[in-house]
Design goal:
Elements (H helix, E strand, L loop, with lengths): L12 H13 L3 E6 L5 H14 L3 E6 L26 H16 L4 E6 L6 H12 L4 E7 L6 H8 L3 E4 L5 H11 L6 H11 L3 H14 L2 E4 L2 E4 L7 H11 L4 H13 L2 E2 H7 L2 H9 L3 E6 L2 E6 L2 H10 L2 H16 L8 H12 L5 H13 L3 H13 L4 H13 L3 H7 L11 H15 L3 H8 L9 H14 L3 H12 L6 H17 L3 H16 L6 H17 L3 H17 L3 H17 L3 H15 L8 H14 L3 H13 L9 H15 L2 H17 L3 H9 L40 H8 L17 E3 L3 H12 L8 H7 L19 E3 L3
Parallel strand pairs: 1-4, 1-5, 2-3, 3-4
Antiparallel strand pairs: 6-7, 8-10, 9-10, 11-12
Helix pairs in contact: 1-2, 3-4, 4-5, 6-8, 7-8, 9-13, 10-12, 10-13, 10-14, 11-14, 14-15, 15-16, 16-17, 16-18, 17-18, 18-19, 18-20, 19-20, 20-21, 20-22, 22-23, 22-24, 23-24, 24-25, 24-26, 25-26, 26-27, 27-28, 28-29, 28-30, 29-30, 30-31, 30-32, 31-32, 32-33, 33-34, 35-36, 36-37
């Protein structure tokens, strides 16, 4: 469906059923009442079409303001010819009634009346007569708030009915977006458009048309992002202007103030405007009051009203209003957390920053909410106003978030400022720039060690070190450092969230899922004690546990965490967080073999974070997308994405190097070069071992493309169908992590001293060990029970895996030729 053509009618099944019931019962009439653009006309048209298909005789009347001055102008096509002069209205009505009486005996007759509030009085009277005499069923649309004639009111006052047409639900709006947008939208753009349309299909259509015409909606990596505003559409401006023209100047001025500051506390508004004008503005229906505890605030009745009203204001008027609001708020106690942020934004829009300290505090809050662009504008005004070292450091931090690493490094003072209180935040910022921005890894670690134990911010510095160690592939050290932070009694909220991410993720990579879950709960307990819960802190705790579940093969659990984190990030309008969770959803989806969903998620992650890739995650996303395309058989696409990943190769983020290489192996499989693919997969296993990821190492070792252990879906985690004969797996939906292996593969796995077996041998795990060759069974049995005891994991495997469908062999006999050994707790 084209965005400018006829849209599918969605979300109106109940309304259509009501209309059908009224027609079947031959009631006098039904009046559909709703706001402009809510879809009354489209609903009426669909109802008439369906009625006609069912054998109902249908007529349509369209009322307009232009035809209102012409008696019987709207219903002229219903008047039979020849008929007497319109100067004899009684005779004309009688002739129409006779005509409809003749028709009504044969089949139902329906007259659909669009914009009935614009009918001329004679037309309204004629339609009223046809309805009350049961000669036709009148189904009329009326704009909410418009005055109606007695004739129309009587359509539902008696035995007729009235139906309020509500805004579409969010699910219906999203369905329309899927059909009307030129391509898949990123989640942030989708949420903005859904919120602004507020269930109004006409406004959604205008928003999309304006976004496409002005270039505000642009494609990036196959995903469309909306970066414009809703203020440019002439149709939107017309809808708002029509309502503003009926207002007194004082009431319009109140609405302008509300539009600039919404939601605006009533106490603040009363300091800027006249109370009588406030009341008039509220009575107009364009502003509504909201109550939150003891606080009352005014906002525009529809999100687009504010957009259009701000766009129509002269620049001088807009600056005056914002400046007035900023000064009034700055003179009041800033009790609420967002008060400083709101006052800072109002100062920006006024063009004059008279309170730079508030602007600096606002920049911090914007950064906490991941509104990086706003944070930069605020902190630059504070820096230019002479706020000193604090503003200089914060500006460097903002530039770091924007991946402008060298610029941020130059902005950050080369030495810590006097006083130990600022040493920690200086060291954390500098270390992040050195590690992720400039690839100076050793210097980054040295900088974090500059903060002595017991100094202010030491917990946050150590939490950062745990995070950096994890991404640097030093999981044992990351776990140790993160645990130490979480065990401190004085650990702050931010330090707890960072430490939880580093420690829980590292525990998962080391195969210790139970410990990772305990660490996540420990981190959540610290966060729960903080009254102000910031979304990024919550996300880091969830991300740590998500890494752990993914690494230990709990893909269902990892996917649930990623989905929830994604939804929370979208609700917070945090673009960076949405990108991180979308990327992880894509990685998990690929591992599960859901290639289409994985590609959509990875493309969204790339589109959202590519321009501000502070932590250099895009390389991993590109590599995963290359793997997706290779598995889908798209070799040119796979090569293109892999080349993009290679172009961003860096020394940092050693954790992801084996992940990249495994996707390279799948590209080589798609090329038909199995020898190179096996070599690359083994290299990926070596990199995983070097970066202390034994769970990942085992998967890479045993799922080399082209090997006997190759899985069915071709993903990184080997899988095979569950529920084969003689087995009753505990979680059939859960992919397993061990393929059928030859004796050579078993020897390598079972003799290793790494803890890779630990997470896969717990009672909750549904690992199944397929024994598909005599050699496999022979090795698996003899290595534990034979005369020669092998070290490593052979013992745990044999203890946890007993074949209930087979006779347990004696010590002198191996279960050669057996089928499957399911794991039991």
């Amino acid at each position: 469906m084209s965005g400018r053509g006829e849209w599918t009618l969605v979300g109106r099944d109940d309304e259509l059923k009501t209309i059908e019931d009224v027609v079947s019962a031959r009631l006098p009439g039904l009046v559909l009442v709703g706001d402009a653009g809510v879809g009354k006309t489209r609903l009426l048209r669909e109802a008439l079409t369906r009625a006609a298909e069912n054998g109902v005789e249908c007529h349509r009347v369209s009322a307009t303001g232009a035809a209102r001055s012409i008696p019987f102008g709207a219903v002229s096509h219903l008047i039979p010819a020849p008929t007497g002069s319109r100067s004899d209205p009684v005779g004309l009505v009688v002739s129409v009634e006779r005509d409809f009486a003749r028709r009504a005996g044969e089949r139902p007759v329906v007259i659909g009346i669009d914009d009935a509030h614009l009918l001329d009085e004679p037309s309204a009277g004629l339609l009223h007569q046809l309805a009350v005499h049961r000669l036709a069923v009148a189904v009329a649309t009326v704009r909410a708030g418009e005055p109606l004639s007695d004739a129309l009111t009587s359509l539902w006052a008696g035995s007729g009915r009235r139906l309020d047409v509500r805004p579409l639900p969010a699910t219906a709006v999203e369905h329309l977006l899927d059909e009307a947008a030129p391509g898949p939208l990123d989640a942030i753009s989708r949420r903005r458009l859904t919120r602004l349309a507020d269930g109004n299909p006409l406004l959604l259509r205008e928003l999309l048309a304006d976004a496409i015409d002005t270039g505000g909606l642009r494609e990036s990596r196959g995903v469309w992002r909306w970066r414009g505003t809703a203020s440019g559409s002439p149709r939107l401006a017309e809808l708002v202007s029509a309502r503003l023209r009926a207002l007194e100047p004082a009431a319009r001025q109140v609405l302008e103030v509300v539009a600039c500051g919404e939601p605006l506390p009533l106490a603040l508004l009363e300091r800027c405007t006249d109370p009588a004008a406030i009341e008039a503005a509220e009575r107009s229906g364009m502003a509504v009051a909201e109550h939150s505890g003891a606080r009352t605030a005014l906002r525009m009745a529809h999100p687009l009203y504010g957009e259009a009203l701000r766009a129509s204001m002269p620049a001088s008027r807009s600056r005056t209003v914002f400046g007035q609001l900023a000064d009034v708020l700055a003179g009041m106690p800033l009790r609420r957390r967002d008060d400083a942020l709101v006052a800072g934004v109002w100062q920006l829009r006024s063009g004059s920053v008279r309170h730079p300290g508030i602007a600096l505090a606002a920049a911090r809050q914007a950064l906490e909410r991941f509104d990086i662009d706003l944070a930069e504008r605020l902190v630059r005004t504070a820096y230019d106003a002479g706020q000193g070292w604090e503003a200089q450091w914060l500006l460097a931090r903002v530039l770091q978030y924007q991946a402008r690493s060298q610029e941020a490094f130059d902005m950050l003072p080369p030495t810590p400022p006097p006083g130990s209180k600022r040493l920690a935040i200086w060291a954390i910022t500098r270390a992040g720039l050195l590690y992720w921005g400039l690839d100076r890894i050793d210097e980054a670690h040295e900088t974090l060690r500059m903060v002595p134990e017991g100094a202010p911010g030491h917990d946050l510095t150590e939490a950062t070190r745990s995070w950096v160690l994890f991404y640097d592939g030093r999981c044992e050290a990351a776990l140790e450092v993160g645990q130490a932070v979480l065990n401190r009694p004085d650990t702050g909220v931010r330090a707890a969230s960072w430490a939880t991410m580093g420690a829980a993720s590292a525990a998962g990579m080391l195969g210790r899922l139970g410990l990772a879950a305990d660490l996540a709960e420990q981190g959540r307990a610290v966060l729960a004690a903080e009254p102000e819960r910031l979304p990024w802190n919550e996300a880091q705790v969830g991300l740590g546990l998500c890494y752990a579940r993914y690494a230990t093969g709990d893909l269902t659990g990892a996917a649930e965490l990623a989905d929830q984190g994604y939804r929370d990030a979208v609700a917070s309008d945090a673009r960076g967080m949405v990108a991180v969770w979308a990327g992880f959803r894509g990685i998990i989806g690929k591992t599960q073999g859901r290639l289409d969903a994985a590609e959509a998620d990875l493309r969204e992650a790339i589109a959202l974070v590519e321009e501000n890739d502070q932590y250099h995650l895009v390389r991993t996303y590109w590599a995963e997308l290359a793997g997706v395309r290779a598995l889908a058989g798209d070799l040119p696409g796979a090569r293109r994405w892999l080349a993009a990943a290679d172009a961003r190769a860096r020394a940092a983020n050693r954790l992801f190097h084996p992940w990249v290489e495994m996707n390279r192996a799948w590209v080589e499989v798609a090329q038909g070069d199995l020898t190179a693919a096996i070599r690359t997969a083994r290299n990926a296993a070596d990199l995983a071992r070097d970066s202390e990821q034994p769970t990942i190492e085992a998967v890479r070792s045993t799922s080399a493309p082209g090997s006997a252990g190759r899985n069915r879906c071709g993903t990184g985690w080997p899988t095979w169908p569950t529920g084969s004969a003689g087995s009753r797996p505990r979680s059939p939906e859960r992919p397993t992590v061990w393929p059928a292996m030859t004796g050579r593969h078993w020897r390598r796995l079972l003799t290793t001293s790494s803890p890779v077996a630990t997470p896969c041998l717990r009672p909750r795990c549904s690992v199944r060990l397929p024994v598909r060759t005599p050699g496999t069974a022979d090795h698996g049995w003899r290595w534990h029970n034979g005369p020669r005891r092998w070290p490593g994991n052979a013992g745990p495997y044999a203890r946890h895996c007993s074949p209930p469908t087979l006779r347990v062999p004696s010590r002198r006999r191996s279960p050669v030729g057996s089928g499957t050994w399911p794991c039991s707790p």
